[in-house]
Each structure stands twice: as C-alpha cells, then as structure tokens.
Amino acid sequence: MKPSIAIIFCFLVLGVDSQRWFQFMKEAGQGTRDMWRAYSDMREANWKDSDKYFHARGNYDAAQRGPGGAWAAKVISDAREDIQRFTGHGAEDSRADQFANEWGRSGKDPNHFRPAGLPSKY
C-alpha cells in the first residue's frame, strides 16, 4: 500500500473531519519530528540509563502538539516496540519502554525518568 493511501485510510478510520484534517496532518508531522529529535538526542548523548527518559520526552513533546502528534507518537512507539519483540529483544525492556512512552503521551513530566548527570542540553 502506498504511504499516501495508508495515511488517507488512517484518517478515515480515525474519523478526522475535513476541517481538522490539515491541522491533524501538521500536528502528526511535528510530532514525528519531535520523536526523531528525541531519538537523535538519545544517540548523541549516549548516556547510561537514559533510554526511558528519551522515550518519555519524545512522546511528551509530540503529544503536546495535539491529537495528530499524540497519534504519531503512539504509532511510532508501537512500531518500534513491535520490531524489537519480533527481533527477539527483551520483553521486559519493551514493557518498560512502553510505560515510559505512555507516561510522556499522557502529559506527565518526562524528567521523572531523567538519569542523574545527564547534561542539561537534553
């Protein structure tokens, strides 16, 4: 299925009305960028025990964009965890990641997962 058809199908399934369609798309794009920024920062920081913080932060930032951002964060987070499970990575770690994802998407402070000493840049 082509990506454009998949996106339109998702909007129909989600029931997004035509007036909010463009706003939803904008929020989803911004949320995707927020998730990518959190992932890039995690890779750059390369800080021990910071994984959950960056999961929560990316989801939090994306969800703050609105329903489109929250939707993008959920889709990206779920896809990432599904891939990890499929490739045989730890189920326990995946559950912990999903807990951090949901924490951030629900609007709770991602700093709850912030490891000691992580530079303030992040």
UniProtKB/TrEMBL annotation:
The keyword Signal applies. This is Serum amyloid A protein. It comes from Neotoma lepida. SMART domains: SAA (SM00197). Residues 1-18 form the signal peptide. It is found in: Secreted. The lineage of its organism: Eukaryota, Metazoa, Chordata, Craniata, Vertebrata. Residues 87-122 are annotated as: Disordered. PANTHER family: SERUM AMYLOID A, SERUM AMYLOID A PROTEIN. GO terms for biological process: acute-phase response. Keywords: Acute phase, Amyloid, HDL, Secreted, Signal. InterPro entries: Serum_amyloid_A, Synovial_Prolif_Regulator.
